[in-house]
Amino acid sequence: MVAVTISAAGKLPLAKGLPATVEVSAQATVGDIKKALQAKFPKFKVSRQKLSRKGDKKSLMNEATLTSAGISDGTELEAKDLGPQIGWTTVFLVEYGGPLLIHPLFYHLPQTFYRQAVEHSPLQKYVYGMVMAHFVKRELETLFVHRFSHDTMPFRNIFKNSAHYHILSGVLLAGAIYSPTYSATSSYIVNTIRDNPRFLQGCTAFWVFCQLSNFSTHMTIRNLRPAGTRRRAIPYGYGFGLVSVPNYFFETLGWTTISVMTGSYAAWFFTFVSTYQMLVWAAKKHQQYKKEFGKEYPRNRKAMIPFIF
C-alpha cells in the first residue's frame, strides 16, 4: 500500500479535516486517490477535486498511475475545490438544444413574433432545414461520437457557453431569417439570386459537403481515443493533412454558406464570432500538438485555415 498525505490548497469547507492521509494500492491511479479522499469527506466529490503535488499547481490527471505521476509512499499532495461541476455531455446537449427549440418557435409562430403571417420563401425553408439538421447532428455526435478530455466543467460556465448558441445562433439568427424581410413576397427575395433554385441547391449541396467533412474529422478524432481513456495521438487522414483542426475549418465553411445564402447581418455576425473563437481554440490545440509530439508532428500543418493560419 502507498500512503499519501493530502493538505488543503486554500480554504476547503467540504474537507475541514485536512490534512489527512489516504492509502491506496501501488497499482492505483490519481483517480483512486480522489475516491479515497471522497470516502473520508463524502461532500468533497471526485468531480470537484483538483490534486497536485505540493508546491506545484499543475493538476494531476485522473488516469495517471502513481508511478507516472511521481507519487510514492509519503508523497504530499494538495487538494483544491473546483466548485460545482457539470458533465460535458450535459453541457453540449443544453447548448445545442437551445437553437433546436428557438428556431421552430420563430418559424412556425410568426404572428407571435412579427405580428403578421409569413409566407415562407424557399430560402427560409432551406435555411430552416439546414440549421435544424446541423444542431441535430451536433446532439447526436455529443451522445455517440465525442470522447471528452475532461469529464466535467464548472457549472457556472454553462450559462456563458449556452448564451453563444441560444442568443446568437438562436434568437438573433432565427428572429432575422424567418422575418417578413426574407418571405416569399419580399422584394429582398423576389427576382433575386436568393429566389434562384440553382443557387439555393448549389449552396445546400456545398453545405452538406461541409457537414459530412466535419463529421468525418470528428470520427477520426474519436477513433484515436479508445473508450474510457485520455489517450492523445497525432491525427491523420482527410483534412488533417493541411490543418490541425479541420473540424473547425469545415464548421466555418458551413456557417459561411448560410451567411452567403441569406446575406443576413445576424448570420454574418454569428459566423464571425464563431470563427474568431474557433481560431483561438485552434491555435491553442495546434501548439499543444507541437509541444506534445515535437518533431513527430507534421511541420507543414497550419492550425485551422489551410496555407494561411
Give the gist of this structure.
This protein has 309 residues and is α+β, with helices and mostly antiparallel strands. It has helices spanning 30-40, 88-108, 110-114, 122-144, 157-177, 197-224, 246-262, 265-293; strands spanning 2-8, 20-24, 49-53, 76-81, 85-87, 152-154.
Overview of the molecule:
- This is 3-oxo-5-alpha-steroid 4-dehydrogenase-domain-containing protein.
- The protein is an alpha+beta fold and 309 residues long.
- It folds into two domains: 2-83, Roll (Ubiquitin-like (UB roll)); 86-296, no CATH class.
- It is 50% helix and 9% strand.
- It contains eight helices and six strands; from the N terminus they run E-E-H-E-E-E-H-H-H-E-H-H-H-H.
- It has helices at 30-40, 88-108, 110-114, 122-144, 157-177, 197-224, 246-262, 265-293; strands at residues 2-8, 20-24, 49-53, 76-81, 85-87, 152-154.
- The strands form two sheets. It has a four-stranded mixed beta sheet, with helices on one face. The protein has a two-stranded antiparallel ribbon with strand order 5-6.
- Helix 2 (88-108) runs antiparallel to helix 4 (122-144), helix 4 (122-144) packs parallel to helix 6 (197-224) and helix 5 packs antiparallel against helix 8 (265-293).
- The protein is elongated.
- The model has no long low-confidence stretch (mean pLDDT 95).
